[in-house]
Amino acid sequence: AECDETRGNCAGALGVIVDKAEGGAEAAITAGAAPALVSLLRCEALCKRTGSWCAHALSVIADEVSGGAEELIAAGALPALVSMLLDCGASESTRNFCAEALYIVSDRAEEGGKAALAAGAVPALVALLRSDAISDLTRGNCACALDVIVRTVEGGAEAALTAGALPALVALLRVECASENAQICSTSALL
């Protein structure tokens, strides 16, 4: 299906309702929003704004609806979210919401981490952790998702190792102290 401005505006309105209206996320599940959002997220002609709104709505559904994370797995959201993480044309906010949704689903659904691993999330998350082109917020959501997967899924740690996670994780551990924090950092180093 062709992704047009109307669909983008519908995704935007849905995302706001899910996020801001009391009971909006539950009502969206009942209305069948998850499969519709996943279908739109898979659209090749997806514009950046629409992708961001779809990923945001999916993230809120996973976070705020009891059973929402399982609903997203059943709707096939995880492969679509992973695909958007790797899409060079995806906006920063789309990638952030995709990483956030992967983290929430991995953390909340009983089989979430396993489903994320099966969807190819680990190499995608590692690729973004290595990227200089993402924000700290997105990097943080990627790290959270990876942490849950490697902690909770058999084979998750091995997948992270194979994907080259260690150099990326070690690089992110090396933080330069800002000048105003230099005294605190120097003192911490002595402890």
Task: Explain how this protein is built.
The chain has 191 residues and is mostly helical. It has 13 helices and no strands. It has helices spanning 5-20, 24-30, 33-41, 48-64, 68-74, 77-86, 92-108, 112-118, 121-130, 136-152, 156-162, 165-173, 182-190. Helix 6 packs antiparallel against helix 7 and helix 9 crosses helix 12. The longest helix has 17 residues, at 48-64. The radius of gyration is 18 Å and the shape is globular. The protein starts with a helix and ends with a helix.
What's the structural blueprint in terms of helices and strands?
Elements: H1 5-20, H2 24-30, H3 33-41, H4 48-64, H5 68-74, H6 77-86, H7 92-108, H8 112-118, H9 121-130, H10 136-152, H11 156-162, H12 165-173, H13 182-190
Helix pairs in contact: 1-2, 1-4, 2-4, 3-4, 3-6, 4-5, 4-7, 5-7, 6-7, 6-9, 7-8, 7-10, 8-10, 9-10, 9-12, 10-11
